[in-house]
Write a structure and sequence with these properties.
single chain; lipoprotein; palmitate; 1 helix; membrane; Membrane-bound inhibitor of C-type lysozyme; MliC; Lipocalin
Length: 115
């Protein structure tokens, strides 16, 4: 079921022209044993991270890489409003919710390790 849902997300991205090539499909295990499967997709020329598709709490979340991270890669929905942030660095990640109204980040899942 999960692979079908992620596959459907990739198909939607491919149809929109955003899918250049799946680069990896790691699964992360976070605190409290929460598992977050992911699909990473490079930019069209394949030189940089482009999009990540996450399955979190039964929802599929598509986020784009930004240039905001000092190290690692930071992904978020391309808007100035509230939304999820997925931050990866050397096999570790965290999922954050950014509340634009109060301009605050709240960590939802920390200590996520690629498995």
């Amino acid at each position: 079921m999960l692979k079908t849902m992620i596959g459907a997300g990739c198909a939607a991205l491919w149809a929109s022209g955003a899918l250049a090539g799946v680069t990896s499909t790691p699964r992360y295990t976070c605190e409290r044993g929460v598992e977050i499967p992911t699909v990473y997709i490079n930019t069209e020329d394949g030189s940089e991270p482009g999009v990540v598709v996450l399955m979190v709490e039964g929802r599929m979340i598509n986020l784009e890489a930004t240039g905001e991270a000092a190290s690692g890669v930071r992904y978020r929905f391309p808007n100035d409003g509230s939304g999820y942030i997925w931050w990866t660095h050397q096999g570790e990640a965290q999922l954050i919710w950014y509340d634009a109204e109060v301009k605050e980040e709240v960590t939802l899942y920390a200590f996520c390790k690629e498995s």
